[in-house]
Design a protein that fits this description.
275 residues; mainly alpha; Tetracycline Repressor, domain 2
Length: 275
């Protein structure tokens, strides 16, 4: 396959491209070492997303990047090194995006912003997300998707812990809730990666609605007797500390929390303030 640009033949060019020195060969685009490294990272990202770690070879990376295998080895040392660079870059990209979304705002807004940031990364970097969720090599445990989710959960825990303490809720529960929230968004994101329906904004809104109001906040999900309990187990609204969590940052009266009068599944209740 030829690249656009000046054409010519030479032993150096032919050898580096893996072409037959006896015949004419495409003249590869000249790049700096940094530019070539970036090109190979992008090529490898695409291949790892398509075929996974085990199904990708250095030979394929070199062929698609139109360089010789020694060039790939020179930059990364081998397939494991190349994979580690790709995974580390995608992990940082996703983590930075989610963390920046947790900067400021009402807790419900933070949740929506974080969910949208996670889904936004998937929407715009589907290949990178596929690399993250695929099985890693045995030697690359530090690059596992679960490790990334743990880092994100740690950031969410910090935000929740601060809000819990401010509201008089047991701050030690922040770890549990952060794991639950991040896990919910991550698993939904993996499912949405392939189906892409409903749209990104709607998926984020449904996630926040479920996290904020619980299943009892969805029409038709309460028990036949109107209670929120299941098989005699008290539901969230009858548990004092959980009801405290449900109105973090809300300055309105508790009786209006999650009331059916609101037209938004994510925004605050639209009933008039009680004073």
């Amino acid at each position: 396959m030829s690249l656009s640009g000046p054409r010519g033949a030479g032993s150096g060019v032919a050898s580096e491209n893996g072409a037959d020195a006896a015949g004419p060969a495409p003249h590869r685009v000249r790049m700096t070492g940094t530019a070539r490294r970036e090109q190979l990272i992008e090529v490898a990202r695409e291949l790892f997303a398509e075929k996974g770690f085990a199904g990708t070879s250095i030979e394929e990376v070199a062929q698609r990047g139109q360089v010789s295998k020694p060039v790939v080895y020179e930059h990364f040392g081998g397939k494991e090194g190349l994979y580690a660079v790709v995974v580390d870059r995608e992990m940082r990209r996703l983590l930075d995006r989610v963390v920046s979304a947790l900067s400021a705002g009402h807790p419900r807004e933070l949740l929506l912003q974080a969910a949208d940031a996670f889904l936004g990364y998937i929407d715009e970097n589907a290949g990178g997300f596929r690399v993250l969720v695929r099985d890693s090599p045995a030697s690359g445990g530090s690059g596992m998707f679960s490790s990334l989710l743990g880092d994100i959960a740690g950031q969410v825990e910090h935000v929740l812990g601060r809000e819990f303490a401010r509201r008089g809720v047991d701050a030690s529960l922040a770890a549990l809730y952060s794991q639950a929230l991040v896990g919910m968004v991550a698993l939904t994101g993996q499912w949405w990666l392939d189906v892409r329906r409903p749209g990104r904004d709607e998926v984020a809104a449904h996630l926040v609605n479920l996290a904020w109001h619980g299943l009892s906040g969805i029409d038709g999900m309460s028990g036949r007797d109107g209670s929120d309990g299941i098989d005699g187990v008290a539901g969230p609204r009858t548990t004092p500390w959980l009801s405290d969590i449900s109105h973090l940052g809300d300055t309105r009266s508790n009786e209006h929390l999650g009331c059916p009068g609101t037209t938004s599944q994510v925004g605050p209740c639209e009933c008039p303030p009680t004073g």
